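Human: I would love a firmer grasp of how sequence relates to backbone shape in proteins. Could you go through the record with me and say what the backbone is doing? Here is the record:
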Amino acid sequence: MATAPDAVTPVPLPYAREVEVAMLLVSRRHRYEGRPADGATPADEEELRDRVELRAGLGIVGDRYFAARAHVHASVTVIGLAGLDEVARQLGVPVDPVATRRNVYLRGVDVEALRGEPFSLDTGDGPVLFRGHRPANPCAWMDTEVAPGAFRAMRGRGGVRCDPESDGVLTLGRAVLRTAHPVPSG
């Protein structure tokens, strides 16, 4: 019997490293709509969270991309803070990570190395399995909301669009990242 292409196939994740889940963002609505020159729509609730709930194949409960078929394989975006630190150095200005509108902000790993890879994050409530898919390419909004030049500077540092492959919870703080292959620190 053939396996469905979206079926979760257990993959050994023998490589473990400690990372930090530094920020978690959940937004019920898309705030970057229309023309960047008009500015972002204001938040109508607190978007930074201490804890998020994930559902396999659906995303983060309460997020704008939860169960959105148009965002299959892209319901959760993970970004590395080291890449944003490099963007800030390159541009010579502070960068507010929240302005990138990603969901999970990690410190301690090169997140870009997770493209196309299975991985898990465990913040103490058990591992949440993910599959990294395509890059989270920056958009023109980055030049107005992050800093002038950020659109170009973030290329290759915008994070990875992922699917959760198991239900679970992520919280802020220390976490264990498990991967199928060694990944560089970030």
Notes: Helices lie at 81-91, 141-145, 150-153. The CA atoms of residues 34 and 137 lie 18 Å apart.
